[in-house]
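Ops channel
N.P.: pipeline sanity check, posting one input/output pair.
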């Protein structure tokens, strides 16, 4: 039985794609960056805001990345809930595990992560929301997973990570815990399949059936 269930945020629990893309495009337009498609922007998400900005601006200039990050933040704080919503079945899945320890590990910075989960009415399910500015290394480093395992006393076999990307798969592998990925997020099913997660499902309904089947 799983005692600790960990979740990624963007693309896993919450569909934030449109609001992220809009804020990135605002930063690109404001600072005369390249014109990118939605998919080109989406494919840069996952390793933290600063890295995202460097990727979309195609730059190693730290000053430009800092300015782009600031511009993004100014826009995102006003528009992060314009289109953002929980994925179908996410709340039901959280409710199923409400008597276990649940937490979020995301490379997305705060205060956005906590504010989004609070606004969507699910923050109370989590014992912790470890965002990208929590002082621990970004995923795929396993430090945040190990921290929560230590805090809860959960072993590797008692811990499950739920994500939507190769970064999540690598983080779970590095921590020695099982990983299930959802293909409804930012990364396509073929790419996820190639990364070989322990389990690959299309949505939370399928994940809940898997949880029953595995007696998690």
């Amino acid at each position: 039985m799983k005692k600790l269930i960990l979740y990624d945020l963007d693309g896993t629990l919450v569909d934030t794609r449109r609001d992220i893309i809009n804020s990135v495009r605002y930063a690109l337009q404001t600072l005369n960056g390249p014109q990118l498609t939605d998919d080109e922007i989406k494919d840069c998400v996952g390793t933290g805001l600063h890295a995202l900005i460097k990727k979309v601006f195609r730059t190693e200039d730290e000053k430009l990345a800092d300015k782009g990050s600031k511009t993004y933040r100014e826009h995102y704080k006003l528009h992060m809930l314009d289109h953002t919503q929980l994925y179908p079945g996410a709340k039901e899945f959280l409710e199923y595990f409400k008597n276990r320890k649940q937490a979020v590990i995301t490379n997305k910075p705060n205060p956005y992560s906590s504010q989004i989960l609070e606004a969507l009415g699910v923050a109370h399910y989590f014992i912790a929301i470890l965002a990208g500015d929590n002082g621990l290394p970004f995923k795929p480093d396993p430090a945040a997973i190990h921290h929560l395992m230590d805090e809860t006393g959960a072993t590797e076999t008692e811990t499950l990570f739920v994500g939507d990307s190769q970064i999540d798969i690598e983080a779970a592998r590095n921590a020695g815990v099982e990983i299930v990925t959802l293909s409804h997020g930012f990364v396509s099913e073929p790419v996820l399949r190639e990364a070989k997660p322990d389990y690959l499902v299309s949505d939370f309904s399928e994940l809940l059936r898997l949880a029953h089947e595995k007696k998690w």
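N.P.: looks fine end to end. The chain has two domains: 4-15+84-214, 17-79.
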